[in-house]
Design brief:
Number of strands: 9
Radius of gyration: 44 Å
Bound molecules: 3,4-dihydroxyphenylalanine
CATH topology of the largest domain: BirA Bifunctional Protein, domain 2
Number of helices: 11
CATH architecture of the largest domain: 2-Layer Sandwich
Strand order of the largest sheet: 1-4-5-9-8-7-6
Strand content: 15-25%
Length: 342
Amino acid sequence: MFQKMIQQVEKILPALEQELKAVKTTSALEQVRVKYLGKKGVLTNVLRNLGKLTAKEKPLVGRLANETKTKIVEILQAKEQELKLSEARTRIEKEDLDISLPGCGPEIGHRHPISQVLEQIKAIFVSMGFDVVEGPDIESDYNNFEALNIPPDHPAREMQDTFYVNGTMLLRTHTSPVQIRTMQARKPPLAIIAPGKVYRRDADISHSPMFHQVEGFMVDKQISLGDLKGVLEVFMREMFGPDTAMRFRPSFFPFTEPSAELDIRCVMCMGEGCRVCKQSGWLEIVGAGMIHPVVFRNVGYNPDEYSGFAFGMGVERIAMLKYRINDIRLFFENDLRFLRQF
Ligand code: DAH
C-alpha cells in the first residue's frame, strides 16, 4: 500500500505537465486546476487511503503529498501567467490597431449662408464708413410703429401680422426701430447700418416667420436722394457684380418722404423675363427714402436743420438671388446636404 501510494503521488506531476501542454486558454486551465487540486481531485483521492498506512509511513507520504501540492500550485500559476500574456497578445493583434496611421480629423463646419451674406453686407457698408449698430429683437410698440409714423390703424399692427409679447411689447417686424434708438442716443452726423432678426406671422415658400434685415440710414445737414442713390449703387455693384443695372421706382413708406423702391435687373434671366421676376425683368430688393420730418421730430431732431436717407433690405432675399435658391425655408431646416454647398 505504501509503495503504491508513493508511486501514485510521484506520477501526478509528470501527468500534470503532460496535460498542460494541450491547455491553451485560462478557462481550460481552471478545469485542470479543479482536476488536480479540487475536493474530488487527483491528490485528495490518493490521500484518502492515508489512514490505512502505519504511523511511520503516514508522515512520509504526507510530506511528499504536501511538496507535490506546492509544486502543482506553482506550475499552475506559471501557466496562468503565460496564458494571460498570450491571450492579451492575440487580443491586441486581432484589434488591428495601427497607431502610426494618421487619424480621421474632426469634420470642420463653416458659417451659415445667411451669416456669410450678412458678413459681406456689413463689410461693404463698413468700407463706406458706416457704423454697425444692433437693437433688441423684443421691441416696444412705440419704437417699432408709433415713432416711425406708422398709424394705429395700419394693417401691420394687427395681431395677424405681428407677434405681440404683451400689450406694449412685440417681436420687431423690421429693423427700422434701430433708427429711433440710435437717433435718440446720438447726434448727427450719422452713417449706420443695423443688421438683425425680424419676425412676422407669415410662412410660405418666400416668407419665414423669422428672417433677417439690414437697415441703413445717414443723417447730416444736406443729405439728399443723390447720396442714397450713390450708396446703394456702390452696394449693389459690390454684391451682385459691376454690371448690375438698377432703377428707382416711387413707392410709399410711412417713415420716409419721398419713398422709393430700388430694383435690380433680374439676376436669373438678365432682364429677359422669368418666373422669379414675374416676367418684369426687374427684382424689388430695397425699400428706401428720405427720413420723414415726423420721425425726426419724434427723436428730437430739427427737420429744418437735418435731413437723411434710410433703407431696408431682406438678407434672405439677397442670399436667394445671389445663390439662386428658390425656397426660403431651406435656410432654416438645417439640412447639411444644403448647407455644405456654401
Ligand atoms: N422697414 C421696411 C420693411 O420692413 C423696409 C424699409 C423701407 C426700411 C424703407 C427703410 C425704408 O428704412 O426707408 O418693409
